[in-house]
Write a structure and sequence with these properties.
Layout: E1 8-17, H1 23-40, E2 43-49, E3 52-59, H2 61-72, E4 77-88, E5 99-101, H3 111-122, H4 132-145
Parallel strand pairs: 2-5
Antiparallel strand pairs: 1-3, 1-4, 2-3
Helix pairs in contact: 3-4
């Protein structure tokens, strides 16, 4: 039996939030995600921008795939579009059950991330593989969010 060179699995998707979703709904979603992710050894990041979600999930292939199937049925969003699903070498968000940013405040440190996210959504070719551009985007997300209060994965 060979050595598994890709011990982790990653799913990245985007979706459109239901128009009735509010901040309390998102807070509830995050608490559910943190609990479920901790129990299933899943880590990741959720971004909410311009009424759209983009989420990066990583962990065991079976568990991440099962979670994504559940996410697709969630009534709080529509038009779930899989951007990437595949094996990765290691976790990007190893310390976070679910990092989150909604870009609602005026934190000037996040302005570059807002611009990057806008262009990320518009680059369809970016999604085909976890290429250097996509990987760099998530590295920048992690770096910029590291300075903010994000619950640690335990």
């Amino acid at each position: 039996m060979g050595i598994n060179l890709y011990p982790m699995f990653c799913v990245i998707y985007r979706s459109i939030a239901e128009t009735t979703i509010g901040q309390s709904d998102i807070s509830n979603l995050l608490e559910q995600a943190k609990t479920l992710n901790r129990a299933n050894d899943i880590t990741g990041c959720l971004l909410f921008y311009d009424n759209e979600f983009v989420q990066y999930l990583e962990g065991d292939r079976v568990r991440v795939t099962m979670l994504f199937e559940k996410i697709k049925r969630d009534q709080r969003h529509t038009n779930v579009q899989l951007l990437f699903a595949g094996h990765i070498y290691s976790r990007e968000f190893e310390d976070w059950t679910m990092a989150y940013e909604d870009f609602m405040d005026s934190n000037t440190g996040l302005k570059p991330l807002k611009l990057a996210l806008s262009s990320y959504f518009n680059q369809v070719k970016t999604y085909k593989h976890l290429n250097p551009t996509t990987k760099k985007f998530w590295v920048v997300v992690k770096s910029l969010l590291s300075s903010r209060s994000v619950e640690k994965f335990k």
